[in-house]
Amino acid sequence: MIDATLFPALTAGFPPAFLAAAGASGFQEVLFVLVVVIAGTKLFGEIAQRIGQPAVLGELLAGVVLGGSVLGYLDPTDAVIHAFAELGVLILLFEIGLHTNLRSLAKVGPTAITVGIVGVVLPFFGGYVAALAFGVTVMQAVVIGAALTATSIGISARVLSDLGQLRTPEGQVVIGAAVLDDVVGLIILSIVAASVGGAAVSVGGVASTTITAVGFVVLAITLGSIAIPPLFHLLEGARVRGALGILALGFALLLAYLATQGGSAMIIGAFAAGLILHPTPQRKEIERSVTQVGFLFVPIFFASVGAAVDLRALISPTALSVGGTLIVVGLLGKILAGFSPWWFKGHRLLVGVAMVPRGEVGLIFAQMGLVSGVLTGELFGALMLMVVVTTFVTPPLLVALATRRPPGPDAAPDASGIDDLVSGGHRRKSKAATPH
User: Fold this and answer.
1) How many domains does the chain divide into?
2) Cα 290 to Cα 248: distance, rounded to the nearest angstrom
3) 381 near 316, Cβ under 8 Å?
4) Do 129 and 193 contact (CB within 8 A), yes or no?
């Protein structure tokens, strides 16, 4: 996932919904929208769980219903809603980092790198060639191919956690590959944005962006692993209830800010903060505190992803034909990437499917192409269709695959933290992971 605030022009363009109609500056309207979003995500999440699907699927659907395509209550481009959604994804990635053992991640490093690289190369060239076959321009084909490289780590990680699969070798491969996709996607987005703006793309510029993105992660983890654990050990005796959790969240937000200042993505900083704090003895206490905040903000993030879907743009003949082709390319590219590390003995189909959802990252690419004038409304609709289908088919497919392969001892649910955040309790988790 790429932070949209790095490219503010890319987030404009959706029709104003409820907030704009009522006067977006009114705090009362903001409160009303928050109430509607909270109620809607909980209701749809409950329905999804009762039919054996992850809560995230219901929250995405709630966003579609509440968005401009249906009721018009939720405008994901509104400044307040966008800020809350950004906080939600930062909390989610921070919790994922807290659950990720760096040594375990290193063990699947070559596998994750292979999946990540192949998962970028195959969809990009597949989408590029498929788009050219429909007679589009080269720049249009480049934007379409770039949109197909995206992976929404938040959606897949949340579903895998809901199924008790996040800490399995497959889950670690997905996390590692998706983080690599974030870095590579940031680089591609920077290059495409520069090209669309008429700027010349140089080898030096590409190398600088790459070094910045990778270097930040390495530097943050190296320095943070030395300085932060002793600091939290000193703070262990803090008397204020929840102080450690809030300080940890503040540390994650600080790294997210530093990541943007260094030219990287906010989510990379939040994820790195979680990796740094994973070995600390206070991890469980931190998780409990951060989870309480996440119960509010994380569903807003997923609802915003659903609300960004414009159903009206999906029904034209061109959008349906081009979009159908891109769906096939998008599915095959990521699934084949899961099979690319032939030496990996785990469930490679599960890995490939977990890499499929494009989510908000694909929407950012599509919106960039539309706002810049590169994409027509029909081509934008085709990309929207691809994003919608790949995002919404992934949760039920993962549920089906995970139930066929019972999780091993390493996949046991944790007592608190992200598992509670994504499933609402262990009783429901076991229902979702039980074969029907």
Assistant:
1) 1
2) 8
3) yes
4) no
